[in-house]
Amino acid sequence: MMCCVWCSLAQRNTELFKFLTVFDVRIRHLLFFTRYWAKLRRLCGSGVRLTSYALSLLVICYLQSLSDPFLPSIDRMSQLAGACS
User: Fold this and answer.
1) Which residues have a Cβ under 8 Å from the Cβ of 7 and sit 6 or more positions away?
2) If you average pLDDT over every residue of the chain, what do you get?
3) Mean predicted confidence (pLDDT) in 46-65
4) 55 near 34, Cβ under 8 Å?
5) Helix/strand/coil for 5
6) Where are the domains of the chain?
7) Which of 15-19, 28-32, 44-48 is the least confident region?
């Protein structure tokens, strides 16, 4: 049962990343650049470092928390999706 929960979560996160990169192509470029920058600085990778996934979540969180948010929150996206269906 626990595997199904984690698989479902992973699938939803993958769908979220796909949606966000289609939402605005600049997000994809920013995520790639940030991961590349972190790799050059040895901030991500194996050991006690950030994973690419964690780094991507930090970028998304930052884009949602700006005074003029670049990305809507997950709750807001859910509301917008409900209004469209």
Assistant:
1) none
2) 82
3) 86
4) yes
5) helix
6) 2-84
7) 44-48
